[in-house]
Specification:
By secondary structure, the protein is mostly helical. The chain is built from 3 helices and 4 strands. The longest helix is centred in the N-terminal third of the chain and has 99 residues.
């Protein structure tokens, strides 16, 4: 009776081992396939989400840039209007000052007026400078260059601009104001 029992137990364990292999192996293979499928899907979904986010940020940046350009154009227009008004007011002030002050020698009679104009700022860093018809400073930024040619001490491209500015100023009519735009080379 004993030897039969051993055979029966070993068949039972063999059957159990075969069942475990046939149940576990397909489950493991199916689990690996499902994992790989979900992994690929997750990566594809993340890629799509990142593309959507990037497009959203691009659109936001583009809208922001357009709005900033619109604001800058409006501000530029306001500054140009202020500059024109300021230039006309300075001209009138000089004319009135010249009539009301006793005639003196040269520009000396205008020094109090020039001192006040030197204090005027346009924006955070802009300042007023006045150049005569020969291209010499009447009013310079630091007042140290008054009387000197405006292009003296400037870089070559700036000196060329100053000479062009004087030439254009000579062609203006009495009440005409012209605004020129260019990249300022003096970081101060």
């Amino acid at each position: 009776a004993r030897p039969v029992m051993k055979i029966f137990v070993s068949i039972k364990w063999k059957f159990l081992a075969v069942c475990l292999i046939f149940l576990t192996l397909p489950t493991a293979v199916l689990g690996i396939l499902i994992y790989q499928t979900y992994y690929r899907e997750a990566l594809e979904n993340m890629r799509r989400d990142l593309i959507l986010m990037a497009k959203g940020w691009y659109s936001t940046a583009d809208i922001y840039h357009e709005e900033m350009q619109r604001i800058l154009k409006r501000e530029q227009s306001l500054v140009e209007k202020r500059l024109k008004s300021l230039a006309q007011n300075v001209k009138l002030t000089f004319e009135l000052y010249d009539r009301s002050v006793k005639p003196g020698t040269g520009l000396a009679r205008f020094q109090p007026l020039l001192d006040k104009l030197a204090e005027v700022r346009i924006g955070r860093s802009g300042y007023i400078f006045i150049i005569d018809g020969d291209g010499n400073y009447i009013l310079s930024r630091d007042r140290k260059s008054d009387g000197m040619p405006a292009w003296e001490g400037q870089r070559e491209d700036s000196a060329h601009r100053y000479k062009g500015l004087v030439a254009q100023a000579r062609s203006l009519k009495s009440d005409e104001v012209k605004i020129l735009h260019y990249a300022w080379t003096d970081p101060g």
